[in-house]
TrEMBL record:
Superkingdom, taxonomy of origin: Eukaryota
GO cellular component: extracellular region
Predominant cellular place of this UniProt entry's protein: secreted
Subcellular location: Secreted
InterPro entries membership: FAM3, ILEI/PANDER_dom, ILEI_FAM3C
Stated name of the protein: FAM3D protein
Single Gene Ontology MF annotation: carbohydrate binding
Family statement: Belongs to the FAM3 family.
PROSITE patterns: GG_LECTIN
Organism field: Odontophorus gujanensis (marbled wood quail)
KW Membrane (keyword) present: yes
CDD domains membership: ILEI_FAM3C
Ranges annotated as spanning the membrane: 6-26
Length: 226
């Protein structure tokens, strides 16, 4: 054979032998090296973009379900936010939140926002008749989304707690001074809602001085069926 061909075959054999040795080493040591780690991300074609879900949730919702995300307030500094079907219903930016209880109502069949004269209630006030009336007037099939900010329990009485329980709350009877609470319930719900989070105000575990950490809950609420 010509010298050039011999040199090429020797080089090829050397490369194949080196590849075989490296492959055997990594297989035996239990490690794996991907093409991306060898070449680097910049040399590979970009992968498909991550899908964006409604309300910036981690997962999408099935058909006949509404996407939602509820975030409680953080101490008495950062206000809560409520998102439903990719629409921000309440937030600091919208200037429609307040200390106490923040509540949004949505039509459980169509997903349309229901307008009410007030959507946040200062729970330090001795008279919470307005909140009682608000809860009494919720119609069957209405979805309610609620988030606390600062304190929502100081003036909460047994009547109000019973009304929230009827909407599917499991934790409202435990709600105390400066606890954080996020909740999605519905008028006419049979049983308790699976969409509820509660964290106690505890000096030993509080993230903030005098307040627990904020709560964030996302999920897919089923559409009301006839």
């Amino acid at each position: 054979l010509p010298p050039g061909v011999i040199r090429f075959l020797v080089l090829l054999a050397t490369l194949l032998g080196s590849w075989f040795i490296v492959q055997m080493y990594f297989e035996r040591s239990g490690r794996a090296i991907s093409l991306r780690s060898w070449l680097g991300d910049s040399l590979l074609p970009p992968g498909p973009p991550h899908p964006r879900h409604k309300c910036e949730n981690k997962k999408g919702c099935p058909v006949d379900h509404f996407a939602f995300r509820i975030t409680s307030g953080a101490a008495n500094v950062v206000g809560p936010s409520i998102c439903f079907e990719d629409r921000i219903l309440m937030s600091t930016a919208k200037n429609n939140i307040g200390r106490g209880l923040n509540i949004a109502l949505v039509n459980g069949e169509l997903g349309a926002v229901l307008l009410k004269p007030s959507s946040f209630f200062l729970m330090l006030h001795p008279d919470i008749t307005q909140l009682e009336t608000f809860l009494h007037e919720i119609k069957d099939g209405t979805i309610m989304l609620a988030a606390t900010y600062d304190d929502a329990a100081t003036k909460m009485n047994d009547k109000v707690r019973a009304l929230f329980s009827a909407l599917g709350s499991r934790y409202v009877n435990q709600l105390s001074f400066r606890d954080n609470w996020v909740f999605l319930g519905a008028k006419g719900l049979k049983g308790k809602s699976p969409f509820e989070e509660h964290i106690k105000n505890d000096q030993e575990t509080n993230k903030y001085d005098g307040w627990p950490e904020l709560l964030e809950m996302e999920g897919c609420a089923p559409r009301k069926q006839d």
